[in-house]
């Protein structure tokens, strides 16, 4: 599938790093480093604008290496980019570590995964079919 993209950053287009990669890295399109204190949030621009086909969304997800090494995450993960959005892709980042961290220009800050979705319509009913799990909530399926 081809997706239209405008790249107003100084960096190459996002690309898959391996044959089995589901996501492409997004880079910080900034001129100077950003410092984020503990528990601070910010929106980091990417310089990218996309036109997704209807029936698809782009999901912005944390990079596992940054989450582990720096405590940097995407608080609304996955962040959804709708098919009719035409603005610049921005990545909301939060520093979950106890120390201040730095985001460098061009640093790979998040992943972008494109996924199909399906629209639904609600059918109001008075009861639902029974299932093995039933109404069991969080943790109800056990620990193993």
Can you characterise this structure?
The structure is a single chain. This protein is mainly beta and 144 residues long. The chain has a domain at 23-116: Distorted Sandwich (Deoxyuridine 5'-Triphosphate Nucleotidohydrolase, Chain A), CATH 2.70.40. It is 5% helix and 34% strand. It is built from one helix and eleven strands. The chain has one helix spanning 64-70, and strands spanning 4-7, 24-27, 34-36, 41-45, 48-51, 56-61, 72-73, 79-81, 90-95, 101-103, 108-116. Strands 2-11-6-8 form a four-stranded antiparallel sheet, with no helix packed on it. The protein has a three-stranded antiparallel sheet with strand order 4-9-7. It has a two-stranded antiparallel ribbon with strand order 1-5. Residues 10-142 form the dUTPase-like domain. It is an enzyme of class 3 (hydrolase). Pathway: Pyrimidine metabolism; dUMP biosynthesis; dUMP from dCTP (dUTP route): step 2/2. Its cofactor is Mg(2+).
Features of the shown structure:
144 residues; mainly beta; Deoxyuridine 5'-Triphosphate Nucleotidohydrolase, Chain A; four-stranded antiparallel β-sheet; three-stranded antiparallel β-sheet; 1 helix
